[in-house]
Amino acid sequence: MDQHSAKMPSPLLSIVPILALVALLFVTIRIFGSDALNGASQVVLLTTTAITSLLAMVFCKVSWKAIEAAICDNILGVATALLILLLIGALSGSWMISGVVPTLIYYGMQIIHPQFFLASCCLICAIVSVMTGSSWTTIATIGIALMGIGEAQGFETGWVAGAIISGAYFGDKISPLSDTTVLASSVTGTPLFTHIRYMLITTTPTMLITLAIFTVAGFMHSTEASSQIAEFAASLKGTFHISLWLLAVPVVTGVLIARKVPPLITLFVSAILAALFAVLFQPHLLHEIAGDSSAGGSSLFKGTLMTLYGSTGIDTGNAALNDLVSTRGMGGMMNTIWLILCAMCFGGAMTASRMLESLTSTLFRFMRKRVGLVSSTVCSGLFFNIVTADQYISIILTGNMFKGIYKEKGYESRLLSRTTEDAVTVTSVLVPWNTCGMTQATILGVSTMAYLPYCFFNLISPLMSILVAATGYKIKQHHEENKDFPVS
């Protein structure tokens, strides 16, 4: 029996796994705190998967084979993302130990004034993300360097991470190179550049508001960190060989991205190139990592491999800087990968049982008017991000579920594609157990709940989508005879 022939469960039954998930996560986080993601949250997700599967087989007559197939499909859908995560781990280690990130931090601290840092941080990440089409790559490269500059200038990590994520997801949302942008336009049947141009109506004012907030916050920031900046700069220069030649690594990475080389190849080449630069520019650090004071080639080889796959710690003489330049390599991504796999299991069980379909169908009663339609789409996108833990699945489910309704009510597909991106793409990073939330928290070393209040672009985007729908600006309806949906 496939999921389409399964009995549709009632909304009351469908909400049981969600309530169980929320309750168990609440208790788990209260008990384990920040360590909840080291295994406890994964067990919770598997437990709620079991609950969902049991309810589906008993009350909905769904076979285990159908549930297992849905879970496998979900996991297959994120297989590339898991490989990207591993390569990002290797890249973050090699970029740090090779001196690429320390060089960016060293010069960045001297160029960017603290009062304009947050706004500059957001704008830089926005530009890079538009060019690359990837929030993940932007955050894993320039984002890590900006985190270091922000900490050196005395900013709270939540503010810095919020500025980085706001800018990165601006580009991820509107870049023609972005996979989520292409996916949202494809699922809804909207031409890509039509979709991008229409998104600017909600995205532009959201970004301007975000930059204004970060500018004001920057002027309110105390600039008494000059001594700390000087101390950080001296420690960096005393530990790493700072050289402009090291910037060749991000330049080559940018060229590969501009030439649309697949992300897996780009990240691999970038990580290996940085590893080679580590051998050339930082051999003393590789010997330190390997725990071998000899100058032999085997020590360099061991240190290089450890940089790519394992945790590293460098003594810079500055305790705060030691934490900043420490890396976790590919191994540091394993908890994230473990969580994603468990989340995919839960999402697959919810999909196979048709419980997701049942819950979202209850939103249809609020669709009598245009604002209700857009609001329901936004709420569904947020809901899917929470329960499926993956933005790609959420975009597909939201687009497919509402496509027929928008067509029936006479609205253009571009309204659905824009609302889907406003609701799904940018909010995925705000959910702690979502693939995006877990990934960015892991890369930046800042918990999701710590940066969430400062991701202004991500928080405002869904509200802006509803606000623009309320004004009716540039929203066309073809079936004028439908009284519930007045022509704008």
TrEMBL record:
<dbReference type="InterPro" id="IPR004770">
    <property type="entry name" value="Na/H_antiport_NhaC"/>
</dbReference>
<feature type="transmembrane region" description="Helical">
    <location>
        <begin position="198"/>
        <end position="220"/>
    </location>
</feature>
<keyword id="KW-0813">Transport</keyword>
<comment type="similarity">
    <text>Belongs to the NhaC Na(+)/H(+) (TC 2.A.35) antiporter family.</text>
</comment>
<keyword id="KW-1003">Cell membrane</keyword>
<feature type="domain" description="Na+/H+ antiporter NhaC-like C-terminal">
    <location>
        <begin position="167"/>
        <end position="472"/>
    </location>
</feature>
<feature type="transmembrane region" description="Helical">
    <location>
        <begin position="76"/>
        <end position="97"/>
    </location>
</feature>
<feature type="transmembrane region" description="Helical">
    <location>
        <begin position="240"/>
        <end position="257"/>
    </location>
</feature>
<feature type="transmembrane region" description="Helical">
    <location>
        <begin position="44"/>
        <end position="64"/>
    </location>
</feature>
<dbReference type="GO" id="GO:0005886">
    <property type="term" value="C:plasma membrane"/>
</dbReference>
<feature type="transmembrane region" description="Helical">
    <location>
        <begin position="117"/>
        <end position="146"/>
    </location>
</feature>
<protein>
    <submittedName>
        <fullName>Na+/H+ antiporter NhaC</fullName>
    </submittedName>
</protein>
<dbReference type="InterPro" id="IPR018461">
    <property type="entry name" value="Na/H_Antiport_NhaC-like_C"/>
</dbReference>
<feature type="transmembrane region" description="Helical">
    <location>
        <begin position="332"/>
        <end position="350"/>
    </location>
</feature>
<keyword id="KW-0472">Membrane</keyword>
<dbReference type="GO" id="GO:0015297">
    <property type="term" value="F:antiporter activity"/>
</dbReference>
<keyword id="KW-0050">Antiport</keyword>
<keyword id="KW-1133">Transmembrane helix</keyword>
<dbReference type="InterPro" id="IPR052180">
    <property type="entry name" value="NhaC_Na-H+_Antiporter"/>
</dbReference>
<feature type="transmembrane region" description="Helical">
    <location>
        <begin position="264"/>
        <end position="281"/>
    </location>
</feature>
<keyword id="KW-0812">Transmembrane</keyword>
<feature type="transmembrane region" description="Helical">
    <location>
        <begin position="371"/>
        <end position="393"/>
    </location>
</feature>
<feature type="transmembrane region" description="Helical">
    <location>
        <begin position="12"/>
        <end position="32"/>
    </location>
</feature>
<dbReference type="Pfam" id="PF03553">
    <property type="entry name" value="Na_H_antiporter"/>
</dbReference>
<feature type="transmembrane region" description="Helical">
    <location>
        <begin position="451"/>
        <end position="473"/>
    </location>
</feature>
